[in-house]
Amino acid sequence: MKWVWRGLVLVLIAIAAVAGVVAVRTMTLRAPAAAAAVALPSAPQIDEAAAAARLGEAIRFRTISRTAGVVDDPDAFRALHAFLAQTYPRTHAAFTREFVNAFSLLYTLPGSDPAAAPILLLAHQDVVPVEAGTEEDWEAAPFSGALIDGMIYGRGAVDDKGSLIAILEATEALLAQGFAPRRGVILAFGHDEEVSGAGAAAMAALLRERNIRPWFALDEGMAVVLDEPTTGAPVALIGVAEKGYMSVRVTARAEGGHSSMPQADTAADKLARAIVAIRANPFEGGVQDGPAGALLDALGPRLGFMQRMAIANRWLFGGMIEAQVAQTGAGNAILRTTIAPTILEGGTKDNILPQEMHAIVNLRLHPRDSVESALAHLRAAVSDIEGVTVEPEGDPNEPSPVSSTEGDAYALLAAAAAAHAPEGAPVAPMLVLGATDSRHYVGVAENVYRFQPVWARQADLSRIHGTGERMSVGDMGRMARFYAQLIAAGAR
Ligand SMILES: [Zn+2]
User: Does residue 193 carry a catalytic annotation?
Assistant: First the structure.
């Protein structure tokens, strides 16, 4: 019986070894500490009330995007351009301004060292419309730019005239101090981000053509979330990648005919089975690496012992964490490519069996997938349903690559973000679930990040593109100081 004891001892040693690894990893889990390494120059004086008032003025120009390829009100854009030139004279004297695709604005301030890669700040001038019938639900009229209780109200207050005005407040304040950077500074303000981003695409093409390769590009996309759901505490989230976009048309074909004599398998049956099959085959998820892994690494040290243990030992508890994160729609969207059936169509009369029925399914592609691999995944899911095809619909966007969280550019951005987040709040990388203009600068700028230091609660997020969009006066000052420090430190 001696071999039984020997076996038991081996098992106990193995358990002890695993427990030891788990314990050591749990105790040594530390957030990646890049932020402290970069020293920031002090921010210039910013009159935040005046900056907020100027944001209110910018909101009054109805630079609305409704349809791709159509500028709804060209005069509104021209009036905004004139307002910017008049309001920020130092910037307009020092930078060259170019109109690209007629309404996008490209500003360039050369640096003293022409060999140094410039920095690139992005924002967009256009806004989404206000849904008809909801105007009365706003605390102030949606294009009033009114100030109520320390808040500027209006469409575009955050998305994205807040960034646009804050960037210009920053350059104006820096130039007033005699700012003369070593690196060039480029500002690119698109005019149709909300519908196609053609302006951004044209500006990116122009930079590429001129062989200008910015060190980093910074756009909107993420913010300081005061009540991040995992920790319940403030976190500055920096978007390091954004998901791709793709829709497909699922078609089910069958013999038509009179509904009094239906065959065993109708087009409706096939389409229903196809949708169930597609939804039952989710895309691969994962918390080991990628943006989700980096987010957990950054947040782990802030969490309780059990969660910390799980995060530090994802080799063992990865599946458990993934199942928990995937419980909410937003959590699941960070982990994987999502699948959303959005349109079902077919049939013309109640007594006719349709020969074809269709579904449109919208996918948001995680950086680990591609348009091609996603299409193959969907086709495989329905391969055993006869008469069902899956074809791409419209123009898909590939997911962006994931920008580095290790280099100097991220360290600088993390330091500036930390300086403008609540004391002690961690800075964490994040996957942006929507699309921004920044996707057009992938391959032009070395790194592409998405962040504005607005302090937002989760409950506030529905105001963006929704009812009651607003920016606090404090946030406006914070944003202007953030951009000023980032530009001064980045371009030195
Ligand atoms: Zn936007």
Answer: yes
- Dihedral angle sign, alpha carbons of residues 324, 338, 398, 161: negative
* Residue in 253, 126, 143 with CA at minimum distance from that of residue 193: 126
- State the catalytic residue, choosing from 169, 172, 193, 322: 193
Query: Domains along the chain?
Result: 48-226+400-413+426-491 (3.40.630.10), 241-397 (3.30.70.360)
pLDDT tens-digit readout, 206-220: 999 999 999 999 999
Tell me the C-alpha distance between 57 and 176, whole Å: 22
Cβ contact 302:231 at 8 Å: yes
178: helix, strand or coil: coil
Cα 417 to averaged position of ligand 1 atoms, centre (Å): 19
Whole-model pTM: value is 0.88
The Å distance, Cα 281 to ligand 1 centre, comes to 32
How many Cβ atoms sit within 10 Å of the Cβ of residue 180?
Answer: 12
On the question of a cis peptide bond just before residue 227, with omega within 30 degrees of 0, the verdict is no
Ranges in the chain, pLDDT < 50:
35
CA 12 to ligand 1 centroid distance, Å: 56
Known active-site residue 126: yes
Ligand 1 centroid–CA 69 distance in Å is: 17
Tokens of 159: 């998305």
